Amino acid sequence: MTKTFTKWATVAATALTLGMGATAQAQTLRLAHVDPDDWTASKKGAAAHVFKNIVEGETDLTVELFPAGALGNEDELIGQAQEGLTQVVLVSGAMSKVCPAASVLDIPYTFSSATVAWEVLDGPFGDDLAAHCLEQTGLRTLAYGETGFRNFTNNTREIKSPADMEGLKFRVQPIPLYVEMVKGLGGEPTPIAWTELPNALSTGVVDGQENPVGVIYNNSLHKLQKYMTLDGHVYAADFILISDEFYEGLEPAEQEVVKKAARVAGTMGRAIQQWGTAEGVNKVQAEGMQVYSPTADEIAAFAEKAQPAVVDYLRGELGDDAVWIDNLQAAVAATN
Q1: Quick one: which of 42, 79, 76, 47 has its CA closest to 63?
Q2: Is residue 172 located within the same domain as residue 320?
Q3: Pairing of β 227-243 and β 88-91
Q4: Is 248 exposed, middle or buried (0-12, 13-18, 19+ CB in 10 A)?
């Protein structure tokens, strides 16, 4: 409690110092995220630097970067943006906590490829979801980036079908949607905090886990797991968010530059993520991990098991917002 209070007090004090008066506030834009700062390996890091360079190059605004969780975790960053303490934040999973409709993006096996996801998010569906979340949160989605596809790993056997998941315990995030997904596939979901995952894998508390390839490699999880299946069950998007109150206070020309910078930043983040995924697959294989790429028919078999359980759960949770499930499915179908 003391650490959290101190962190928020520091954020508030810094924001007050930078924002004394409307003119001073308009000159400094604070951007925060939880990824490393290294633009060559970090999707959010790359996006943040591109955003900063474009905005500072084309306006009188100054962009101050706070990477690597310097201002807190994603939930805290969203709260700061809503309070006006931090103007721009790059977040992924935390968005669905403040805008539940965003959770439909986590329906497993929705996107057959990253390019399909980009077409959907950069089109009418993405625009409509952004407008809805703006109403819900007071945060404007400037653009979408990418955290990447999540894949299963385990230390017991190669997984080519849902039947291969039976009897295996998989660490999942403490999020009901992921629990329902693994249950639907026949595995045994075990919610475990991220910090406890390496020990849980080492001691056999769980047999496997699921994460994007880059996360698996960069955190040495491949050294604790023998098999990876590139099933891409969930595509995770990054949201580049700005406080709408701050945005509306900008000059029209500044708004246009900020929007453009975010679009370019999101594209850069996607490129770094794609690069990291391809590089990560090669690296884990070189270090002894067995990697399997399912066929289209095998992916369809996974989807047939996983999607109904998650969709039923979300319809119950979202209530009137469940229409976003249908909207997403229609948008994906329109890309074919």
Answers
A1: 47
A2: yes
A3: antiparallel
A4: exposed
Residue 188 is encoded by which pair of tokens? 């045994």
Distance (Å, rounded) from C-alpha 284 to C-alpha 282? 6
C-alpha dihedral (130, 99, 101, 165), degrees to nearest 10: 120
4 DSSP assignment = H
Question: Is 14 found in the same domain as 84?
Answer: yes
Other Cβ atoms less than 10 A from the Cβ of 10: the count is 13
Tokens of 302: 């996974």
pLDDT at 247 over 60: yes
Contacts of residue 159, defined as CB under 8 A and 6 or more positions apart, other chains included, come to 152, 165, 227, 229, 231, 292
Q: What CATH number corresponds to the domain at position 172?
A: 3.40.190.170
Three-state SS at 84: coil
Domain co-membership, 311 together with 264: no
Domain residue limits at 24: 2-146+236-278
* Residues 160 and 307 grouped into a single domain: yes
> Beta 28-32 vs 62-66: how paired, if at all?
parallel
Task: Compute the radius of gyration of the chain from its Cα atoms.
Answer: 20
Question: How far is it, in rounded angstroms, from Cα 244 to Cα 193?
Answer: 32
Token pair 């206070």 is found at 249
- Separation CA 45–CA 47 (nearest Å): 5
Q: Residue 308 pLDDT > 50, yes or no?
A: yes
Looking at residue 34, the DSSP 8-state letter turns out to be S
pLDDT score, position 7: 53
pLDDT at 14: 52
Q: Are residues 193 and 59 both part of a single domain?
A: no
Reported pTM: 0.89
312 — pLDDT class (breaks 50, 70, 90): very high
Name the β-bridge partners of 238: 145
Percentage of the chain with pLDDT > 90? Answer: 88
